[in-house]
Design brief:
This protein is mainly alpha-helical. About 35% of the residues lie in helices and about 0% in strands. The protein is globular. It binds heme C (2 copies).
């Protein structure tokens, strides 16, 4: 008996000593980030295998997105961050003039863009877009080596890079990855139209009539190009010449990427989500209001050998809407405004 008791005590002690052995300090792993994916969104995203989204990566990307130190300088004139141009309240577009000859594109649901970024689609990934934006003379105009040196010397960044990527040693590749993660986290899926699709809210009679015009060929005929992802994305993310002009002299249109004469005057079709708050419109910002845009599609379309065949009504100069139909179409476009996206604290300056 005594012997067994003793053995049990020893056993318990042994067990205790095993379980009490100090745990080896593992470098803490970042927490996977759950991208908010509404059920009616396309299932395929552009998240690369070597840049999975993490809570720490998105948070670091957000800080960098808003930090003028991303220009590798501090406190001097002309310093810029992504947020100098991409404003949340305008769907990460920007109203007034920039140094670029091209108008802005909104940063919305870009995790689902798989066809190229920028008006001509010349940039393939969001990671590449960060590099392009930081180094472009008309955007941040910085030198990546300088940026990395600057961030490495900062008191706050090395630790944040360690949390997100496991190393205090900052590389520009990790800067690209973090900001790309943050941009992918910007999901707009809570407009009135989304709630209508989910059966949670009704559209008014005018909004409903506008929706029908949008989706019918003998109505306003918008859906072929702007209805991508089963209306979830409000863009096919493809490139079209929509008949704005009949002469083409922009060297940076889609033909700059494909080399094809047929892509003269073609540009990426922007999402119509939050369109009411992201004026001015078109690649050169030529229209200041949605009324001007609708008038253009109704009676201002210009024919050329390059116009996309989906502009079915070009022979009539446009889709020929009555004033009432124009108002209904505009009412529908306004249901695409997503206030919770525009005010989402997760996307705002940290
Ligand atoms: C000086 C203003 C400016 C700054 C600063 C700027 N951008 Fe942009 N951004 C633009 C303009 C203009 C476009 C449209 C460019 C084009 O296609 O010609 C654009 C386009 C983009 C796009 C493509 C969107 C799409 O739908 O294809 C992304 C992504 C983007 N910017 C991210 C960033 C990030 C990230 C930063 C910071 C690293 C940044 N931008 C800094 C002006 C700016
Ligand atoms: C053939 C394809 C096509 C059709 C059909 C079409 N669009 Fe477009 N839309 C585009 C393209 C391409 C652009 C960008 C053109 C540019 O900037 O040069 C654009 C731009 C826009 C813009 C400006 C977006 C921005 O952020 O600047 C609005 C608004 C718009 N379209 C609304 C509509 C409406 C409303 C209809 C139906 C009446 C419609 N579109 C039909 C291809 C199309």
């Amino acid at each position: 008996m005594k012997f067994f008791k003793a053995m049990t005590v020893i056993g318990v002690l042994l067990l205790a000593s095993v379980s009490c052995r100090p745990v080896q300090e593992e470098p803490s792993q970042p927490t996977p980030y759950e991208l908010a994916k509404p059920s009616y969104f396309p299932s395929r995203t552009n998240i690369p295998e070597d840049n999975p989204m993490t809570e720490e990566g998105v948070e670091l990307g957000r800080k960098l997105f808003y930090d003028a130190r991303l220009s590798g300088r501090d406190g001097t004139d002309g310093i810029r961050s992504c947020s100098s141009c991409h404003h949340q309240e305008h769907s990460f577009e920007y109203g007034s003039a920039t140094n670029t000859h091209h108008a802005m594109l909104p940063l919305i649901n870009l995790a689902w863009n798989r066809t190229g970024l920028g008006w001509n689609g010349g940039v393939t990934t969001l990671e590449d877009m960060v590099l392009a934006a930081v180094t472009s003379p008309v955007e941040i105009n910085a030198d990546t080596t300088q940026v990395v040196k600057y961030l490495q010397r900062a008191t706050d960044y090395p630790e944040l890079f360690e949390k997100a990527f496991g190393s205090r040693h900052i590389t520009f590749v990790n800067v690209e990855k973090a900001i790309a993660q943050f941009v992918r986290s910007m999901v707009s899926a809570d407009s009135k139209f989304d709630r209508y699709l989910l059966g949670e809210e009704d559209l008014t009679e005018d909004e409903m009539a506008g929706y029908e015009l949008f989706c019918t060929e003998d109505g306003a005929d918008c859906f072929h190009c702007h209805g991508g992802g089963g209306l979830a994305l409000m863009t096919t993310n493809l490139f079209y010449n929509n008949g704005l002009d009949d002469e083409f002299n922009d060297p940076e249109d889609r033909s700059a990427v494909t080399g094809s004469h047929w892509d003269r005057g073609a540009y990426k079709v922007p999402t119509l989500r939050n369109i009411a708050v992201s004026a001015p419109y078109m690649h050169d910002g030529r229209f200041a209001t949605l009324d001007e845009v609708i008038d253009f599609y109704s009676e201002g379309v210009k024919d050329s050998e390059n116009i996309n065949p989906l502009m079915h009504h070009v022979m009539d100069g446009g889709v020929q809407l009555t004033p009432r139909e124009k108002a209904q179409l505009k009412a529908f476009l306004k249901t695409l405004t997503d206030d919770s996206f525009l005010n989402n604290p997760d996307y705002s300056r940290p």
